[in-house]
Design a protein that fits this description.
With 360 residues, this protein is α+β, with helices and mostly antiparallel strands. It has helices at residues 25-31, 47-55, 72-76, 103-116, 121-131, 233-258, 316-351, and strands spanning 8-9, 60-63, 97-98, 150-154, 189-194, 217-227, 274-280, 283-291, 303-312. The protein is 30% helix and 16% strand. The longest helix has 36 residues, at 316-351. The radius of gyration is 20 Å and the shape is globular. Mean pLDDT is 85; it is low at 1-6 and 8-38.
């Protein structure tokens, strides 16, 4: 059985690293204005003011009502395989979870203990990261199999940069303090795609089509936020939707650049998504972020983060369901999402007469 109740990762050694709060008071204070003539910069933890002043003018909303769902397989239109690594494209995936017989009972007991002892946020975050949100072994060597791999990033410092990594635009310009945020979100945990899936001789061209962090990762698809107890629920949701909206908007920018002339009723827009999971103590919510119906001149009209499943890790059935969601989100991220992003990158490069025949 895996150490500390952790679900074993297929074919790789588990690496559980401690995580801290996504955007700490010290982080916010250092980014705030020092002048007494101006109010201190808003932070996601100030969720009411932040939603009204930062998110609402960008039409970024949260639908926290629980929707009736048939489970992750029905959500993604897939069937659960006996072995996820038998699925094409997942042969090398090391982030998939393999729940051993009876292990959900051990995990539930761990969460019940942490809750009863009122342990700190870092304890909950560390255990969840070790148990559900695994990392791949890292290497700078080019991948020989050319398969997509996920990169788990903890507290990544990645504010808006250049023209490829932008904050969602203001859609209402008359809101006070609507620009009073740096968009240096630093989510507790996030999954990106590694550039090692590209032909190494052509990977340098990719950054001309979309944002690539340090020549290493691109196309984020899952954001995770941790808080201690339910009183922090709204803060966790606000941080998750902020990070997710930025990822989704830049995915949208890649899509529209690859498909010039796209209109609001383009069916391809419905396939754009980003996923998030928020934890408050043992309780979790799985979210899907989708673009709103497009009405603006450039098509983007904000996005909505909707609750697609929830549960409590003190209950064994809810643990099983969470594992299913995590695996299916990774399956989507490493196959459908990564493939669609790759196709859009090729379209952008083709517009510049770049030979993309060997980029895959």
């Amino acid at each position: 059985m895996a150490q500390r109740g952790a679900i074993s990762r297929r074919g790789a050694t588990k690496s559980g690293l401690p995580v801290r709060s996504a955007y700490t008071v010290s982080d916010a204070d250092s980014a705030a204005e020092s002048s007494g003539s101006r109010a201190r910069a808003l932070r996601p933890q100030q969720y009411s003011a932040f939603r009204n002043s930062i998110l609402a003018p960008r039409h970024i909303t949260i639908d926290a009502d629980a929707w009736v769902t048939r489970g992750p397989s029905a959500h993604f239109g897939t069937s659960v395989p006996e072995d996820y690594r038998s699925v094409k494209g997942l042969e090398a995936a090391g982030v998939l979870l393999d729940l051993q017989q009876g292990q959900e009972k051990e995990i539930a007991a761990q969460y019940s203990f942490m809750k009863s002892m009122q342990l700190c946020e870092a304890e909950f975050a560390t255990y969840a990261t070790e148990t559900f949100f695994l990392g791949e072994p890292r290497s700078t060597a080019p991948s020989k199999d050319r398969l997509w791999r996920a990169e788990r990033m903890l507290q990544l410092v990645c504010p808006p940069s250049g023209s490829q990594w932008l904050q969602p635009p203001l859609l209402e310009l008359d809101v006070v303090r609507s620009d009073d945020y740096s968009w240096d979100v630093r989510p507790d945990c996030a999954y990106w795609i590694s550039t090692r899936g590209f032909n190494d001789d052509y990977a340098f061209n990719v950054k001309g089509a979309c944002f690539v962090y340090e020549g290493w990762i691109l196309w984020p698809y899952l954001t995770i936020e941790f808080k201690r107890y339910n009183e922090d629920l709204l803060a966790a949701q606000t941080q998750a939707v902020t990070a997710g909206a930025m990822a989704l908007y830049n995915r949208y920018k890649l899509y529209t650049r690859a498909n010039p002339g796209v209109t609001g009723d383009d069916t391809g827009l419905s396939n754009l998504a980003h996923y998030a999971i928020t934890f408050t103590g043992p309780s979790y919510i799985v979210w899907k972020l989708s673009p709103n119906d497009a009405r603006g001149p450039n098509g983007w009209n904000g996005c909505c983060m909707r609750n697609v499943s929830d549960g409590n890790c003190t209950r064994e059935a809810d643990i099983k369901r969470l594992v299913e969601w995590v695996n299916e989100i990774h399956r989507w991220g490493l196959t459908a999402h990564a493939h669609a992003c790759q196709m859009d990158v090729k379209r952008v490069l083709n517009q510049e007469d770049v030979d993309t025949s060997a980029i895959e």
